[in-house]
Amino acid sequence: VARQARERVGLTQEGAAEAWKIGVRTIRAIESGSGASPPTILLYAAGCRIANWHDLLTDEARAHLGAAPG
Quick one: pLDDT at residue 68? Predict the structure, then answer.
């Protein structure tokens, strides 16, 4: 889900890391579902032009967090 959101804004992992000032490894962690700190997730979501960071989550991750499906 996160990777697709990044690709929709036309950025590679490296391009996103440079534009958003976060590491490529962090982007990979977010996209693989390993996670990152809340402020970093918010940066990623903003960079992808996503208003709600919950929209980056898979249904499985939402269920784990108790978040409502999108």
Answer: 52
Residue 70, both tokens: 């999108």
pLDDT score of 69 more than 60: no
- Report CA-CA distances (Å) from 68 to 21, 34, 65: 30, 20, 9
Helix (H, G, I), strand (E, B) or coil at 48: coil
Tokens of 21: 């000032």
Cα 33–Cα 24–Cα 10 angle in degrees, nearest 5? 85
Sign for the CA dihedral angle at 47, 52, 58, 61 comes to positive
- Burial (CB < 10 A; 0-12, 13-18, 19+), residue 67, is middle
